Amino acid sequence: MLWGRRIGGPGVDRIRDLARVVGRIVGRLKSVLEEWFAQLWADETAGQLRPDREGRVIPGRLFRFDFYWPAARVAVSIQGGTWTRGRHTRGDGYARDCEKLALAQIEGWQVYYLTRGMIEKDHRRWIGLIAGVIRERTE
Q1: Taking the model in full, what pTM does it have?
Q2: Which of 5-9, 58-62, 112-116 has the lowest mean pLDDT?
Q3: 10-138 falls under which CATH superfamily?
Q4: What is the 3-state secondary structure (H, E, C) of the chain?
Q5: pLDDT digit string (tens) for 34-63?
Q6: Where do the domains of the chain lie?
Q7: Which of 3, 15, 16, 49 holds its CA 20 to 30 A away from the CA of 22?
């Protein structure tokens, strides 16, 4: 609605359809990014420190993390679509991510958000740092 009037018509419907398609594409790209990170993680840690995937770590909530290590209380969330107005960068999605992060921290979790750029440009650094934290927290 704009100024009390519903906006509609064929042009607006096409834009909504296009937005849905873009959303699906971004979702698929995120999955590819997650699988790529999983492979990089396995390579860089020589198959050690295997993460659990897509799990709920906050009691009573449906929030999930892409990768997590329960014994260390460490989680990684891959932030796809940061330059395409993906879910993580739109208002509602960002607000839910902030809530998820705050609740996880209250429960004693350390959460790391990694973007595609961080993974592409410097994955060895980030994996090394996160693996070090996991090792520290499980000793």
Answers
A1: 0.71
A2: 5-9
A3: VSR Endonuclease (3.40.960.10)
A4: CECCECCCCHHHHHHHHHHHHHHHHHHHHHHHHHHHHHHHHHHHCCCCCCCEEEECCCCCCCCCEEEEECCCCEEEEEECCCCCCCHHHCHHHHHHHHHHHHHHHHCCCEEEEEEHHHHHHHHHHHHHHHHHHHHHHHC
A5: 999 999 999 999 989 999 998 888 888 888
A6: 10-138
A7: 3
